[in-house]
């Protein structure tokens, strides 16, 4: 288990969920929580639609996993995310005791798995999470870049229509 082929398989699943976020007008990030080769939680970004700043893809997947396992401790699980997690989500991963994080695109501005800070492997934390980064990074990054390019074009068009 946890081979590159497995990681790519589950990251493709997360990319499908990220596309679902895009389709709902949300930043396209998807997450899949796996235990023993089975999905126990999945999510995609929904803070806008749910009016909830904590409705990040990984938070949704962790919440679902907790309900499935009937436990807040998500032992022996791997979380696959298309984008490096933020500080909030990284903190939830530590508290939930996931074993491993696999992410696609790095986030230099807010990434809490090594880019900006490393919450998941901080020596002061009572639990540390193994990290694999860069799985299908190009596909994950392209999805985000395309989304934000589309958003900028929409904003430009709206400004132009307002000036007409």
UniProtKB/TrEMBL annotation:
List GO molecular-function terms, semicolon-separated.
Answer: tRNA-specific adenosine-34 deaminase activity; zinc ion binding
Q: Which residues bind Zn(2+)?
A: 56, 86, 89
UniProt keywords, alphabetically: Hydrolase, Metal-binding, tRNA processing, Zinc
Question: What is its cofactor?
Answer: Zn(2+)
Q: Which reaction does it catalyse?
A: adenosine(34) in tRNA + H2O + H(+) = inosine(34) in tRNA + NH4(+)
Q: Which family does it belong to?
A: Belongs to the cytidine and deoxycytidylate deaminase family. ADAT2 subfamily.
Q: Give the protein's biological function.
A: Catalyzes the deamination of adenosine to inosine at the wobble position 34 of tRNA(Arg2).
Can you say what this protein is called? tRNA-specific adenosine deaminase
Native source organism of the sequence: Musicola paradisiaca (strain Ech703)
């Amino acid at each position: 288990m946890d081979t590159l082929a497995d990681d790519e398989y589950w990251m493709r699943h997360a990319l499908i969920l990220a596309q679902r976020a895009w389709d709902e007008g949300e930043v396209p990030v998807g997450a899949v929580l796996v235990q023993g080769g089975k999905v126990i939680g999945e999510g995609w970004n929904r803070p806008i639609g749910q009016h909830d700043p904590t409705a990040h893809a990984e938070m949704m997947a962790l919440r679902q996993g907790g309900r499935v396992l009937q436990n807040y401790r998500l032992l022996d699980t791997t979380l696959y995310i298309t984008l490096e997690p933020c500080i909030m989500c990284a903190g939830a991963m530590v508290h939930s005791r996931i074993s491993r994080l696999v992410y696609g695109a790095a986030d230099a501005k807010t990434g809490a798995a090594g880019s900006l800070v490393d919450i998941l492997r901080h020596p002061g934390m009572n639990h540390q999470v193994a990290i694999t980064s860069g799985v299908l990074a190009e596909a994950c990054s392209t999805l985000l870049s395309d989304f934000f390019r589309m958003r900028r074009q929409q904003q430009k068009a709206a400004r132009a229509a307002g000036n007409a």
